[in-house]
Amino acid sequence: MSELATNREIDRSNMTVSDEVAIQINDMNKWYGTFHVLRDINLTVNRGERIVICGPSGSGKSTLIRCINRLEEHQAGQIIVDGTELSSDLKNIDKIRSEVGMCFQHFNLFPHLTILENCTLAPIWVRKTPKKEAEETAMHYLEKVKIPEQADKYPGQLSGGQQQRVAIARSLCMKPRIMLFDEPTSALDPEMIKEVLDTMIELAEEGMTMLCVTHEMGFARQVANRVIFMDAGQIVEQNEPEEFFNNPQSDRTKLFLSQILGH
Amino acid sequence: MSETHAQSVSYVRETMLSEQEPPVTERGVIKWIRENLFSGWVNILLTVISLFVIYWALALVLPWAFGGVWNAGSLTECREVLFSFYKDSHDGACWAVIEDRWLQILFGFYPPELYWRPILAFVLFFVALAPVLFAERVPGQLIWFTVVYPFLATWLIWGGAVWTPILALLGFVAAFVAYKILSKVSGPIVANLGALVAALVWWGALMGPIDDSLNRMVGAGRLEDTVASLNQQAEDLPVQIAALEADAEAKASEIAAAVETKNALLVEMTEIRIEEFAIDQQIEPKEDAVQLLNGAEESIGQIEDILSEWGGVPEAASDSEADLADAEAAAASIDGLIADVNKFLGDALNDIESNTADPADVAALLAAGATQADASITEDIDALVAKSDLTDSLGDLIDLATGLTADASASDLAALRADIATASALVQSDVDTLDGIKDKIIAANASDLEAPQAALVANMAQLTQLRDEATTIAQDNFRISSQQTENRGFLTALNSLTERENSLPELRATTQELRDAVPSAYRNMIDVNQLPEDATSEDAAALNAYLGARNQELSVGASIRDTYAELGRVGLRPIDSRQIGGFMLALIIGIAGIVLSLPLGILLALGRQSHLFFVNKICVAFIEVIRGVPLIVWLFTASLLLNYFLPPGTNFDLMLRVIIMVTLFSAAYIAEVIRGGLAALPTGQYEGADSLGLSYWQSMQLIVLPQALKISIPGIVNTFIGLFKDTVLVVFIGLLDPIGLSNAIRADTDWNGIYWELFVFIGALFFIFCFGMGRYSLYLERKLQREHR
Question: Transmembrane stretches, by residue range (chain B) (predicted)?
């Protein structure tokens, strides 16, 4: 068993799963050219769920969550986010994108803007929030991710962990109802992984609906209420973390777990 | 072994070393010189060569540039001044042409009394530029001035009624209002189209009539006053012209007097230097003779070479044809060389005999001059070889050479060669002596020349001043005379205004009548040639009559409009594009091209990246076609071909056409430069912007372009510099850019044959602007580098 994501007790009082459906994916298929990346994906995410998606590289995990805010286009099936179906209608896409926050493996902060400007940009231009109010919100979230003192610096002056926390704060400034994490810790040094995971745990404690593609199994065990294992573009197994780790059903899952946990 | 090792491991430092200065060869200037100039033998060699080249170039250019003449009325006068100062024909620059014509090089044929308009426009350009280039140092509201500036500058330079630019600006306002209204009720595409339509309707249909009615309104109120003032001017102007003509006459006689003084001074200086010229006349033929003798010596050397190669007179070694031919050829070249020797010697003798004088005569020549030749000059003259000695020795040589044949012995040849060398040395020694005498004479004359030289400088300055004054008078005269001509025409037009206005209804009625007479199928034709073949000759005649009447009606209407435009104009005197030239033309075309091509280039670059098939392909085709054809071809297209594609009768300003072509041309390059910047951005930036819900244009404006443009700055500025310099190509389509003006200046007999000075001046003007742009680009790069690490 790998180490835990945090040693403190996790406050589970707000981590409740409601019956309301946040994301509904029906028979979704995606191809890159002729390559079939995602095959018949069916997934329902309820509000408040914290889902960790894992699997070997090339299994389609990232593509799956990138389809949810349409950074990738799906070719068949349905994706319904917050009751709005994703189609080529640009208005729907922009609406969904402003409701769904996303953090990337390489942060994708805007290097020509200060941290504060990075955080206020979307609220000002997309939500039309007055500048002052947007800055107050941004400072609130920067305090939450514990780097308010960096507000006037540029991304290039921050460490990787700090940048990823800014990226989380930037997403939160749009007050999203769903957060997507695409391998948020893979590009970080071990020391910095912890500070990012702490931020993500705090977010989970507040009841945020989260989909994380990650290999941090400690995080999955402690925070997730469901773990999904994908291979070859399909969902191979999903279960509650305890069951998933202690009693995997499919051979593929067993092999995968033995490889990442067994050393 | 193990002991020492143990010691080194457990070593503990007890005192810390204090900081020390580096050795003397490793710091300051010495270090810099050693490292940068003399670091290795290649570097040393390069340093030496570079220093030599720099010295050589400066030694060539600086005396020319700084020894130049600034005050002179023509190239001939420049040469006179230079000649009076320097002992030999010194090559100094004739900057006087710049002094005389710099305003023309800057402004072309723009009326001098209106120079303040382009100058004001140029100064305001920097005010308008400040919010763009130095956004953080000037108040943000200034950007409004930047928006208005293009209209203001156009008005200042071309003149016209004050409301024309305002009406043009209102077209954008109309577009903006239409966009705002439509974007509330429909999508962005409809709103954009609506804005475009609103602007086009405003400019195409509304602006002209509004302009006309404003002219009419103001003009009607002014009619009487204007006629009175024109009548008054008709009395006043001839008086002014007469006064100016009297001034001009007075000035001309002053100038004539000054020119006379100048000529007298030149004569005086020539007299002072008469001995110098006399000696020069002695030196030149002797120098010539030395050259000829050396040539003869060389030819004998060649004969010797041939003989020694063949071992005597060339004879064939075998009977083979090739051998025979070789031998014949060698014999022929010997004959040729003998002829050369004879010719050289004969010419040398001739030079000495007919063009030089005996030492006694030289002394007489000098005595005729005014110099108190010092004793050493007399000694020098005595040292000259008597003319008879020289001619005798050359005569002997010729005798020997005439006897020269192909089978001359080696010793004969060697003896002859030595004799020639001796004779040559003798003449050369004369040349040296004469040079010495000349230097002494120049030194003796220097003090005598000082006074007339100073007088000449003063005289030239005065002359320049007088000529400038005369030019001003001539310009005033020209201005007032043209005013007079214009006034006469305008007065005639005003007097017939009412009559023309009254005739309009009748003309209209006639046109309508004739139009009704034309069969209805043909009524909308604008040319008889459009009639179908089966039309009768009566139809043709009717159409012809109708078209004639219509043209007359239109031309009367247009003439009334023109009269009102002149009468009712509140604003600046209009200037024709043809009057704009020189550096001003280059700046207008360059700046307009730069300002317009950047946004167009950005759009093209984005279009080329677009996933929309047609947008993408159209942009690619546009860029490739524009880039693949030389600019000069596009300029010719603009000047010649474009008229074929425009509706007949449209008079589309040539300068505007050139600006459009230059803009399109550089936009294609800018697009490619920016595409490089866009390609350099990681896809994560696009995804980051998308994931936040920014629309395409928002993400371009806020995220992508600021970064892509920053990367592209050097390339963009490079393209701008290229564009600015390429504006000189418009000379080929008949616009008077600085190069065109330099040709015009040379066409003046005063400055015929002057090249370098004009090109240096024009080059310097361009350099200042291009260097400035390059520096700004560096500043911007450094600033952005610092900010966005």
Answer: 41-66, 115-135, 142-158, 164-182, 189-208, 583-606, 618-642, 654-671, 715-736, 756-779
Mean pLDDT of B59-73: 87
Task: Kindly report, residue by residue over B711-740, the tens digit of the pLDDT.
Answer: 899 999 999 999 999 999 998 888 888 998
Per-residue confidence (pLDDT) for residue A21, from 0 to 100: 86
- Range among A144-148, B130-134, B388-392, B474-478 rated most confident: B474-478
Residue type, B530: Q
* Domain B575-789: top CATH class: mainly alpha
Model pTM score: 0.78
A251's enclosing H/E stretch is helix A251-261
For residue A94, what are the CA distances in angstroms to A75, B512, B693, B695?
Answer: 19, 60, 5, 7
Contact between chains at B692 and A121 (C-beta distance less than 8 A)? yes
- Residue closest to B776 by CA, chosen among B134, B104, B4: B134
CB contact under 8 A, A154 and B707: no
Asked if the C-beta of B710 comes within 8 angstroms of chain A's C-beta atoms, the answer is yes
Does residue A129 lie within any of the structural domains? no
| ipTM summary value | 0.91
Nearest Cα residue to B125 out of B472, B595, B571, B573: B595
CA gap B694, B700 in Å, rounded: 9
> Closest Cα partner for B711 from B742, B680, B667?
B680
CATH code: domain of residue A47:
3.40.50.300
| Other beta carbons less than 10 A from residue B709's beta carbon | 18
Question: How near does any CA of chain A get to the CA of B778, in Å?
Answer: 18
Cα B178 to chain center, whole Å?
46
Q: What is the largest CA-CA distance in chain B?
A: 132
Q: Is B740 exposed, middle or buried (0-12, 13-18, 19+ CB in 10 A)?
A: buried
Hey, what amino acid is at B109? F
CA A30 to CA B169: how far, in whole Å?
A: 51
Looking at CA atoms only, how far is residue B187 from chain A in angstroms? 11
Q: What is the pLDDT of residues B87-102, one digit of tens each?
A: 555 678 889 999 888 9
Residue A243 included in any domain: yes
**Per-residue pLDDT at B127 exceeds 60:** yes
B690, B698, B784 member nearest A71 (Cβ):
B690
Instruction: Tell me whether residues A108 and B688 touch, CB distance under 8 A.
Output: yes
pLDDT in tens, A85-140: 888 777 788 888 888 999 998 889 998 888 999 999 999 988 888 999 999 999 99
How far is the alpha carbon of B693 from chain A, nearest alpha carbon, in Å? 5
Domain count for chain A: 1
- Write out the two tokens for B537: 């000759």
Identify whether A146 is part of a domain. no
Give the C-alpha separation, A64 to A68, whole Å.
7
Selecting from A97, A108, A170 the residue whose C-beta is nearest the C-beta of B685 gives A108
Residue in chain A lying closest to B707 (CA): A112
Q: What does B370-393 look like in DSSP terms, one character per residue?
A: S----HHHHHHHHHSPPHHHHHHH
For an interface test with A, the pick among B683, B690, B691 (most A C-beta atoms closer than 10 Å) comes out as B691
- Return the pLDDT at A58: 85
What is the domain range of residue A39? Answer: 21-106+179-261
Residue of B nearest to A171 (CA): B692
User: What would the two tokens of residue A31 be?
Assistant: 């191809």
A13 has a pLDDT exceeding 50: yes
Q: Is residue A185 part of a domain?
A: yes
Calculate how close chain A gets to B672, using CA atoms only, in Å. 22
Buried/exposed code over B31-46 (b: 16+ C-beta within 10 A; e: otherwise): eeeeeeeeeeeeeeee
Task: Identify the contact set of chain A against chain B, taking CB-CB distances under 8 A.
Answer: 69, 71, 90, 94-95, 97-98, 100-102, 104, 106-112, 121-122, 125-126, 154, 156-157, 170-171, 174
Query: B782 to chain A, minimum CA–CA distance in Å?
Result: 14
- Show the 3-state SS of B549-573: HHHHHHHHHHHHHHHHHHHCCCEEC
B713 touches chain A (CB under 8 A): no
